[in-house]
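Throughout our pipeline, every protein is held as a single compact record rather than as scattered files. The record that follows is passed on verbatim for readers who wish to inspect the format.
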Amino acid sequence: MAPRANWKGFLRLSLVTCPVALYPATSDAEKVSFNQINRKTGHRIKYLKVDAETGDEVTSEDIVKGYKVDTDTYIEVTKDELDDIALDSTHTIEIDEFVPKTDIDSRYLIRPYYLVPDGKVGHDAFAVIRETIRSMDKVAIGRVVLTNREHIIALEPLESGLMGTLLRYPYEVRGEKEYFDDIQDVKLTKDMLDLARHIVEKKSGAFEPELFEDHYETALIDLINKKRSGAPIAAKATPKTGGNVINLMDALKKSLAGEKDAPAAKVAREDVKQTAKGKKPKKRVEGQREMLLPISGKGGAAAKAVPAPKKAADKPVRATARTKKAG
């Protein structure tokens, strides 16, 4: 099933308009998540909305928004009042200007979206806007309303579609000076910088996110699988530390020596890259939850727990995406 659009409306460049749909480009759905449960009963914890003073439960129709102006003093704002100030641009992404991509400070970036034509009409207008942005080698800056708030969005071509990145407003970005003022101005020797540069060169490579591994997520899956299968959980060994760094030059030299003495990691990485390039892509894995072993349920209806493997299990293959059922 195709993913569900977060927003549908129109993309407008002056008098050129086309219907578009906005889809989230990232997802946290594959991450292992936990529920809070009652240790005594095993039941899930339920939260109630209660009056802070009386302790009485409050129904949804009696809950309104309030802006705190003082201790226990709030200005009540109703839904009708919020609807009255709703922006006219709710259903339109209006392109206001074009800027060089290098002008956008990375601190202003929030999250990416995919923008595609919505329906069978408007593909020509969409292509005109997309190719205009591409030919100018710039980023289009527009405005979009999501959940009743107006956001700045930066649009740039991505293959046959557009990628839109929400941007923060200036008041949302903290200045760096109050954090950096106490950093000491130190003088580094050329030898130190040369050694550090050699270490960087040894570790340099191309940006290949497909080789990234979420070690904590892998450990979570392994822990849950072991608990489901009844395997013993070994206590974690105390990690060894290198001690305090006393001499910076000695630390740099030892780091460089360590890089020279450990070529196996780089060779292994190259093998992974070649394997990834040489083989056809496997059938898409549905997600992290499919990596978890089945657990026996009440009445024997569910699958039985799989016995713990005697040897270390292979690392789970991460899913690249998880399609959600629309609706």
In short: Residues 215-229 form the longest helix (15 residues). Strands lie at 7-13, 16-24, 65-70, 73-77, 92-99, 109-117, 139-146, 149-158, 161-167. The chain is about 25% helix and 20% strand.
